[in-house]
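Let us practice reading a record.
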Amino acid sequence: MYTHVIAMKATRLLLNACCAFTFLVAPPATLAQDHSSFTFAVLGDLPYFAWELLRVEQMIETWNLADLAFVMHVGDIKSGKDLCANQVYVQRKALFERSAHPFVLLPGDNDWTDCHRQSNGGFDPLERLAYFRSMFYVDEQSLGQRKLALARQSPKLPENMRWDINGVPFVTIHVTGSHNGYGIAPAMDAEYAARNRDNLSWLEAAFEAARDTRAPGLVVAIHGNPRFEAARGSRAREGYDDFVHALVKQARAFAKPVLFIHGDTHRYRVDRPLADVPNLVRLETFGSPHVGWVRVTVDPGLAEVFAITPQRN
């Protein structure tokens, strides 16, 4: 088990031994600017199967005994073979509401873009997206028994969220796997184009606000793996090019630690995917069948802002 630390000095990635299920004391998830440390949990691409559902229930019990500012699920709340049926979303919402801490959820490709597949029931993806939004984004607060106030980009994009804890800003951007929903059908391409424009505007606004408040770092979260390693304009980067270009531009200008979180490809890793943007560190969380979560400790008062610890439940 290792702890990964994101330092202000771009060339440094410290690895320190740590113990599973030891938690730093975190303050309530408020907008207080006291620069005290806090901890949050990250998971994604879970649960897919019945046995994973049981493990996630156990994870929630573990979180509920810990001091966490919030829990973030980066998307894919079901497998690509589960029906995109109403009852699945209803069941997952009931599961997430059991969290004692604020629970922030992003959409994944299994949650709507891939619902046209026969294995998912042959649903209309855009109709499923509308239902997903109506189920999980009903007001200006998170899920969970304790709520976190969220700023949403607009009623049409409520999943694009921003919040601030102890001077550290967080932003979520609706970017999924499966090429971000692009290339499936003309209607979905039109949805992608409109959402992509709004996504880029939301990302720029988040970095601008972070600069204005002199934030010590920034957390950006999406679902899809944007394929940093692929060439711009390649098929692998289709649906992601504009977002990656904007992220690179903004992170380079910010010049402070940027923690970029995603799921999608089910491979836990912490790395610096862009050699020319060394202040950007990527965290990809565990995903089915690798059941686990990641603990992120934030200390806005130190140059070393983010410490990342993988947890296997």
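A brief commentary: The two ends are 13 Å apart (CA to CA).
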